Amino acid sequence: MTTLHTLAATIAARKGADPETSWTAKLLSKGPEKCAEKFGEEAVEAIIEAVKGDRARLTAEAADVLYHLLVMLAARDVTLADVEAELARREGTSGIAEKAAR
Ligand SMILES: N=c1c2ncn([C@@H]3O[C@H](COP(=O)(O)OP(=O)(O)OP(=O)(O)O)[C@@H](O)[C@H]3O)c2ncn1[C@@H]1O[C@H](COP(=O)(O)O)[C@@H](O)[C@H]1O
After folding, report:
1. Which of 64, 65, 70, 80 to mutate to test the pocket of ligand 1 (most atoms within 8 A of CB)?
2. DSSP H or E stretch at residue 36
3. Which of 67, 72, 73 to mutate for ligand 1's pocket (most ligand atoms within 8 Å of CB)?
4. Residues within a 6 A CB radius of ligand 1
5. Phi–psi pair at 97, nearest 5 degrees
6. Is 63 buried (19+), middle (13-18) or exposed (0-12) by CB count in 10 A?
């Protein structure tokens, strides 16, 4: 299992856990809107680090983004497997060709 899959499984297991002891459970208990807001904040922090060009800080912020993306997806019952299936569907289709076909 990849780290991302392990993390997604941990997040899924946190549904209904005690918000006093789990950050994930705390976020999920606040609802999908709050999870989405948190994801947005973390994405902006990653954008700032990408613009600044600090690799280590961007790496750390990217990890925050991936974690909060998985929490946001879990809040709407979308699994990592769902996202992977969509990515697999797109495999081999250039973004240039896809845009031209719209
Ligand atoms: N990967 C993470 C992870 N990444 C970030 N975070 C938490 O997300 C929170 C972000 O909150 P804040 O926005 O306040 O933090 P911040 O952006 O650094 O702070 P500010 O700059 O905004 O002040 C922090 O408490 C981080 O510790 C995470 N919390 C948990 N995980 C994983 O989820 C698992 C389950 O965690 P629990 O649900 O807490 O058991 C853990 O074992 C980890 O594997």
Report:
1. 64
2. helix 32-52
3. 67
4. 7, 10, 14, 22-25, 64, 67
5. -65, -40
6. middle
Query: What pTM value is reported for the model?
Result: 0.93
Residues 6+ apart with CB under 8 A from 85: none
pLDDT, tens digit, 9 for 90 and up, residues 18-73 = 999 999 999 999 999 999 999 999 999 999 999 999 999 999 999 999 999 999 99
Into how many domains does the chain fold? 1
Amino acid of residue 99: K
- Please report, for the domain that includes residue 46, its CATH number: 1.10.287.1080
Residue 37: domain span? 3-100
The SS3 of residue 101 is coil
